[in-house]
């Protein structure tokens, strides 16, 4: 998978990702890890089929990731890592996004 573009909504913090896929993917998972500075703050693994309509066919597409930095998290610097893997656990893509959450 080649990541073509990542858009971050300033209002919601949700991510929209455009990609190009070189071959068909039947299933897999997405691991999301958020750190606050260097402190781990959030981790979750989600089935690829909860984000995508599986199987993913070869070609271009888009997907969205909801904001894991909940409103109750402290203001500060966060780093979000999302790793997409197929059902053989081979890495399809890795996304790193740095976010600054400001106080309300």
Automatic annotation (TrEMBL):
Domain MD-2-related lipid-recognition intervals: 2-99
Pfam families: E1_DerP2_DerF2
Recorded GO MF terms: sterol binding
UniProt-listed GO biological process terms: sterol transport
Keywords, sorted A to Z: Lipid transport, Signal, Transport
Family, as annotated: Belongs to the NPC2 family.
PANTHER family the UniProt entry points to: NIEMANN PICK TYPE C2 PROTEIN NPC2-RELATED (PTHR11306), PHOSPHATIDYLGLYCEROL_PHOSPHATIDYLINOSITOL TRANSFER PROTEIN (PTHR11306:SF0)
Subunit structure: Monomer.
Entry protein name: MD-2-related lipid-recognition domain-containing protein
Organism: Geodia barretti (Barrett's horny sponge)
